[in-house]
Amino acid sequence: MYSAETIAACKQDLIDLAQEPRTHFNKREAVAALFEAIEEALVNHTYAEVAQRLGKSGLTISAGSLKQYMLKLKRERSGNSKKTSGSSKRKREGNTKRIAEKPLGQTPTSSKPTTRVLPDASDEVTLAY
Question: How far apart are the first and last CA of the chain?
């Protein structure tokens, strides 16, 4: 059980904490905080050069991670938070590839061919050994 005074003290501490500026960031948050400056640097420099300079300043990040974070932040800031690849777009629109199958060794009883869905190039394949 906690007293009303303890609850009030915790609430006040949290209010005070909310007013303090943040002092620790993970890499993605650091890139977000530096977004505009990184964008400016990318006008004349590559992701590798910007990542190297950030590393010299104390923010160790690979060029690939920097690019990934920047692209995700650009999408979020432009209002398009989801990456749309062609395969997910096809799935969303309900377009699937179908082929007609004829049963082996027998004549179909109806004129309507059977169909099966072919796997998409992005489908995961599990190999059994």
Answer: 57
